[in-house]
Amino acid sequence: MNKLLAPLRRLLRSHRRLVAALLAGAAVWAALTALRPAEPVTVPVLVAARPLTGGVVLAADDVQVRRLPAGQLPSEYLDDPAQAVGRPATLNTPAGAVLLPASVVSRESLAAPGMAVLPVTLASTAAGLIEVGDRIDLIATSDDAAAPVASAARVVAVLAADTQSGLAPARDDGPVVLIELRPDALAKVAAAAAQGPLGFGFR
């Protein structure tokens, strides 16, 4: 056995620096591998394939599924094109943005329990100003008077002024918005909205 090991010992002694370097390299590699963070867990997520305009009914090529790190996502998000295609977008959305339940008009994105939703057309000055989640006062206007018809109503969707979403007729005025109201306020607001675009004020 000694005769067999002797050449190996001589080889190791003559190349001890190389062997030491190899061992040191192996130790560094092992340390880096242990410290390397694990690959993040990814999940399928629905994102906007192009800039989306609020109120436009989404088509299949408006959205796409990507795999994104689960730890960087909100608690709720869409993950299937069927959840968005055929529904109007609630607001303008940039390309690549993750689509949320509130990104498209659906039962989940509309009224809170016990509340109702009514589409109304706002004055043209609302274009580009009103966003989902805003609290606004609605004001009926005529040639010689203005009167409040709702206070602190929540905007649940902003539709393009020329949209043909089926939720409201196309108008040449400002944007059509879906407003969350108490059921007892629906008749008053609907009657005012039937007379023309409503004025608004921010809360």
TrEMBL record:
It holds the Pfam family SAF. Residues 43-105 form the SAF domain. It comes from the Bacteria. Gene3D superfamilies: Antifreeze-like/N-acetylneuraminic acid synthase C-terminal domain. InterPro entries: SAF. CDD domains: SAF_CpaB_FlgA_like (cd11614). This is Putative SAF domain protein.
